[in-house]
Design brief:
Oligomer: single chain
Helix content: under 10%
Distance between the termini: 28 Å
Number of helices: 3
Number of domains: 2
Number of strands: 23
Amino acid sequence: MTELNDTMKASATMTLADANVSTPFKLYGWEITEFPPKILKQGGYRSSPTSPTKVAHSSTKLFPTGVIKAGVPFGTTDGGVTFVNMAGDIISGQTPDGVGYWNFPANSTISFNIITPVNETIKLQLDAASATLPNEPGTANSNFNLWINGKAFSQGTTPDTDPNWHPIEWSIDNGWLQAATPANLLKLEVLGTGLLVKSATFTSKDIPISASYYWKSYKPGMALPIKKGIYSVSVISGVTSSKSETKTFAVSLGLEVEDKMQLELDSVSAKLSTTFTTTDSKTHTISLSEQTEESYSLQIRTTPEDASVTYQAWQLYFSYESNGKTIEQAVPLSDAALSLRTFSTPLHPKKKS
């Protein structure tokens, strides 16, 4: 049987599940259905931790996709991009199916502000067509100069001779973009015969994110008729990853590094909650906190029929992964009780008939 120490009775009864009971429950919007293995023999302690159970696999973008379409006014913002201005003898037009476009002659420019939460590679894609010279079909021959924060990124190295609508792309490596404000200024100058542009789209790659849970055992023991199992344990709650690992994980999500650790964890919690909720039909509320430690005591003792009671207590952990970086959470006992496993060895085993 399991008897609680009087001094810990109030807190322990709220944080210890009944021995050998595995009742599914909901936590953070997920169903917990896997539990620690049972003890099958005297002294048969089980390996810890258990194998992880994945409950979610999603993705997020470090940079919110922004699309600036021809015809919108200066100052228009979409996603992480703001349309700053244009310069030159630019005229507007429409395709036969009514889609607007800008007609950029040689030496005209268009500028954007890009806000990047981290140093992340951004792709710029124009839905465009190289212009032909008036009355000279087949003369489409445009090129470009691209500046980022006043520095030359690409100078006349992207010739284009296609007069049909098609994508023109640049991949802007993370070293060119500043992680914090002020926003990164991108300026594109059109050269050659000019360019027709329907839209400019800014995107970043998808970052995979997953969530798993597992159980971790505290020191097991054995109660004997002449020796009670005095089970005192220091239970850790909160994030068990180091500060550097936590900050690296936050950056992998596209978050800025905070000076105070709890502010960092609050940002990570909000990002994970939003990402998993967006890609699932259920609401997920994740709350990460700094690590704390509390002591709990139990007494495990035998009944007159027991030769011994083998016992092992387990705590639930969650693991979150983002783009190869992980953060580990020891679930507070207020959210998920310890799971106790026991095995009673009878004092007088029944004889086989």
